[in-house]
Structures are given as C-alpha cells and as structure tokens.
Design a protein that fits this description.
Elements lengths: L5 E2 L8 E3 L6 H12 L5 E6 L3 H12 L3 E8 L2 E7 L8 E3 L4 H11 L6 E4 L10 H9 L3 E2 L6 E4 L5 E5 L6 H10 L6 E5 L7 H13 L4 E2 L5 E4 L7 E4 L8 H10 L2 E8 L9 H7 L3 E5 L19 E2 L25 E2 L29 H11 L3 E7 L8 E3 L7 H9 L5 E4 L11 H11 L3 E5 L2 E5 L6 E3 L5 H13 L3 E3 L12 H10 L2
Parallel strand pairs: 2-15, 3-14, 6-7, 10-11, 20-21, 24-25
Antiparallel strand pairs: 1-25, 2-17, 3-5, 4-5, 7-9, 8-9, 11-13, 12-13, 14-18, 15-19, 16-19, 21-23, 22-23
Helix pairs in contact: 1-2, 1-3, 1-6, 3-5, 4-5, 5-6, 7-12, 10-12
The structure holds shikimate-3-phosphate (S3P) and phosphoenolpyruvate.
Shikimate-3-phosphate binds next to helix 3 and helix 5.
Length: 515
C-alpha cells in the first residue's frame, strides 16, 4: 500500500533556525569511487548516508572494494575504504542515481569479467547512450544503449568524441576512472554546450587532489594521463544543493535560516544559491561561526541538530550580491594512512583531521572549528534572511540545473513573473522536471508554462492539493516549500527525499519548531 501523502506544514510565523546539513551527494559518490580506485587504503569522512550514497557503496563492494563504516554520527559516516582487484560477475543496482549509473560503468569495464547494471523503472529512461558509446570506443563491449546493460572489458582507453549536452555526468564518469585506463583518455565534446560545468570542475579538482594529471586547458576537451590515483583522507562538505529548500523557507516566511559549514570556495552548484536568492529578494550574508553545543546523541542519531538562530553570529560581510568572495588559501592534504602525497590544490572536499583524531561533525558551529583547525578558516555560516517580498527571477540555470525545482517553487510564490532558461537537460533527470514542475504548480492553481529549455512562471494565487513527486527528491522538497505558504498542500511520496536527504521530514519539522 502506498504511504499516505505528507501534509506539508504551513509556517505560522517566520522561521528562525540553524540547519546543519549532511554531506554532499556529489562529493560523497566521487570520493568513494576514487577511494575504491586508489593505490592504497583511504578514508572518506562525514560521507552522506542516503539512498544514492548507499547504492554507490554497494556497487563498489560488489566490484571488490572493502568499505568499513567506523564513525556514524549526525555528520555522516566515516568510511575506511580498501581497494581490491576489480571483480567481474557482479550485478550493480543503480536505483535512480545518475552518479551511480554514469560513474560506475567505466570502473566496471576494468573488471576481470562482465558486470550487469539495472535500476528503477525510470532509470531505464535516463540518457546513457553517449557514455556507453564512449566506453565502446575505448574498448569495452556493452549489449544495450540504456539500462539494463552488461559491460565487459578489457578497456584500454585513448581518444573519444561524445556529445555531453545531455549530462555533465558523461564527462565526469569517464574522467573519474580514466587514470586507471592503460592509455588514459582524451575526451572531446561535440554538440550543444555541456551543462553543470561546476560538477565537472568538482571532478577535476578531486582528481588533481588525488595526484591525477588532468588537462582541461582546451574548451570541451579533457585529457587524463594514465597513472595511480592516490589514496587520501578526506572530509566531505555539507550538501549545498540540499540547503536550497531550507534557505527558500527564509524567503517564504520572512524568516532567517543559517547553514553552518558553508565553504568559502567550492565547486558545488548549491553555492549559486547565494546569488539566486539575493536576486529573489533575500539578504544573504556570511558570518563567522561561533561555537555551539555538540548535537546530542550524535553517536546514533542521524539527524543533525537544528537549533534556533538567536545565537546566529553577527554577519561580518556585506550581502553577497555580485561581489565574489575573496579566494582563500585552501586545504592542505592529510596523507592517508598508507599513502604519501603532495600538497593539495584547492579541493571540493575539506581535508579532515589526521586519521587518529576524530573528525568533528559539521553539524554544529563547533564542527567548523574542527574543520578550520585543519584547514585555515575554510568555512563560514551562511545566513539568509527573507525580507517579506519574493521577486520573480530571469535566470539561466544551465550550470546549476539541480537548483531548478526550489527556484521554481519560489517563483510560484513570487510577486512578479519568472523565467528559468538553459535547463532542457532536466528532462533527463529523475523525471522530466520541466513537465513535472509545470504540471504540479498548475495543479495548485498556479500559472507555469514549459518552454523548450525551461519554464515561465507567473504570479497567481495558489490553493491546496496534491503535489506529486515523480520519485524525484527535489520535486518533493519543492512541494514542501510551496506548502509553507499554501494551506492544504499534500506531497505524494515524501519518502523519495531519501535519495539524498533521508532525514528531510524531521529536519523540516525541526526547522519550523525551532523558536
Ligand atoms: O556529477 C554530479 O554529481 C551531478 C551532475 C549534474 O548532472 P547533470 O549534468 O546531468 O545535470 C547534477 O544535476 C546532478 O545532480 C549531480
Ligand atoms: C539530477 C540529480 O541527481 P542525479 O545524480 O541522479 O543525476 C539531482 O540530484 O538533482
């Protein structure tokens, strides 16, 4: 029997909350894969526990990697990862995870036997052709052009041309394993612009941090030299894209939401929220983190503790409109227990304390001191304050497409029209997000229109009703955002938020209760 729909809570008063967020899905799944391909045992600290991250961990285990959880806390799990020979004969369930379906097949092509892949019903509809063709061109044999498929090596690597306009993950997937290909790789993109460049930058940054030589000096061409991938001890940043609905709540309720542990520099797409929410009427500031109590029961409570924001530190910067943050010297790397390595380049992942000292969770301001102690003030609190008005936006979200559902939800509540452009590729995400957003906003009485590459959303009073999630975590949280202001919104399948944030409902409720 399907679970009953979730009555999205209406915010009776402005929210005032500090919301610590678990680790980034994108960083976690790259870190786990790179650790599995590395030249020795490594550690991935404060990794996300969620459906997508668990699917990645299971996939790597089935290919011969040993993953041992050591510390599980509010901030995530610390995985000790020991690479093994890549084993054939396994089956990989990708669920609906783009990072698993696009990142694991290149590694599987190095196995000593065939590996089969399948996933959720909708996963079979997500685009796979370009990366599977590329793997064929590099030497692999694959029996289909979409899920389900079976892949067999050997794969030697070399030069390949592909059209990655459908997903940046085609490029990231090839790059992540490429150093282990006998000939490395040269990827040349030909076609309309590749979306989500920050995610490709995240891939490159993490590869370089692991000592891999990546040449991205020519636009749309990426070269990776063959060589070892260094084992590391790394700490995952909080998921800034998952900050989106919580920060949106500040705008919708004229409240204040603080996210601790916001990196000063990052390749995460969610960092664009600072500018996007400012454009929509918020005041966005960074603030020096102040110590707050450690979360209670953190040894077995997966929910980071949400606190009221009265202890919010004094903002020390001007609103983030337009002015880029000063670049800061970033993290020096901590060698993994059994690997030596050189100094790090700026990384998407903050380097954690040495393996012998426990990592502090980034689930409280206290955690930031733990991270900054090792890295030199790499994070601040991000404070978003709603000003009582939500302004419509005209934005090209090509680079940060995964923020679209939250921005569309805000646009549906805005006082002026919005246009979202550059996100045609969202039709290949967890669902056709453009169709889904237009349908669900209109079902609540709104005025949303699909365009070829985005949405036009005009102000119109909304009413209650069912908001369908289409098994899409970000659709579900978009329904929650609208529900803050519109009585009677019921989100179908809120449990789908487990894809990247299993504690969403508890966190949302705690945010609204924190006063
Ligand atoms: O590499 C990644 O971790 C991701 C890349 C992006 O995919 P697309 O380029 O397919 O949009 C993004 O939307 C997705 O949520 C995560
Ligand atoms: C597009 C997304 O996920 P995936 O990694 O499955 O592509 C997303 O999280 O918005």
């Amino acid at each position: 029997m399907p679970a009953p729909h979730w009555p999205a809570p209406v915010a009776a008063t402005p929210v005032t909350a500090t919301v610590p967020l678990p680790g980034s899905k994108s960083v976690t799944n790259r870190a786990l894969l790179l650790a599995a391909l590395a030249d020795g045992p490594g550690i991935v600290r404060q990794a996300l526990r969620s459906r997508d991250a668990d699917l990645m961990a299971s996939a790597l285990r089935s290919l011969g990697t040993t993953l041992t959880p050591t510390r599980e806390s509010a901030a995530g799990v610390d995985w000790h990862v020991t690479p093994g020979p890549i084993r054939g004969g396994a089956h990989v369930d990708v669920g609906l995870a783009g990072t698993v379906m696009r990142f694991v097949p290149p590694m599987a092509a190095l196995a000593d036997g065939p590996i089969s892949f399948d996933g959720d019903p909708h996963a079979r509809k997500r685009p796979m052709g370009p990366i599977l063709d590329a793997l064929r061109a590099l030497g692999a044999r694959i029996d289909n052009d979409a899920l389900p498929f079976t892949i067999s090596g050997p794969l030697t690597g070399g030069e390949v041309v592909l059209d990655a306009s459908g997903s940046s993950q085609f490029v990231s997937g090839l790059l992540l394993t490429a150093a282990r290909f006998e000939k490395g790789v040269e990827i040349r993109h030909v076609g309309p612009p590749v979306p989500s460049q920050p995610h490709i930058e995240m891939t490159i940054e993490m590869l370089r941090a692991a000592g891999v030589a990546v040449d991205d000096s020519e636009p749309d061409v990426w070269r990776v030299a063959p060589g070892p991938i260094a084992a590391r001890d790394m700490t995952v940043e909080p998921d800034l894209s998952n900050a989106a609905p919580f920060l949106a709540a500040a705008l919708v309720t004229s409240g204040t939401v603080t996210i601790p542990g916001w990196p000063l520099t990052t390749t995460q797409a969610g960092d664009a929220l600072r500018d996007l929410l400012t454009q929509m009427g918020a005041e966005v500031t960074r603030a020096t983190p102040t110590p707050s109590p450690e979360p209670t029961g953190s040894s077995d409570t997966p929910t980071p503790k949400i606190t009221r924001s009265t202890d919010t530190p004094t903002p020390e910067t001007t609103p983030s409109t337009g002015t880029p943050d000063p670049k800061v010297t970033r993290f020096t790397d901590t060698p993994s227990p059994e690997a030596t390595r050189s100094a790090d380049s700026p990384s998407a992942i903050a380097t954690g304390p040495s393996p012998s000292s426990p990592a502090s969770p980034h689930s409280s301001a206290g955690s930031n001191t733990g991270t900054t102690a090792a890295t030199g003030s790499g994070v601040t609190d991000l404070v978003v304050r709603g000003t009582g008005v939500i302004t419509g936006i005209d934005a090209d979200l090509h680079e940060v497409g995964e923020l679209t559902p939250t921005i569309a939800a805000l646009a549906a509540l805005a006082s002026t029209p919005s246009r979202i452009r550059g996100v045609g590729h969202l039709r290949g995400h967890e669902t056709d997000r453009l169709a889904a957003l237009a349908t669900e906003i209109n079902r609540l009485g709104g005025d949303a229109e699909e365009t070829e590459d985005g949405l036009i959303i005009r102000p119109r009073p909304l009413h209650g009703g069912t908001f369908h999630s289409y098994d899409d975590h970000r659709m579900a949280t978009a329904g929650a955002v609208i529900g803050l202001a519109v009585p009677g919104v019921e989100v179908e399948n809120i449990a789908t938020t487990a894809k990247t944030l299993p504690e969403f409902v508890q966190m949302w409720t705690a945010m609204l209760d924190a006063r």
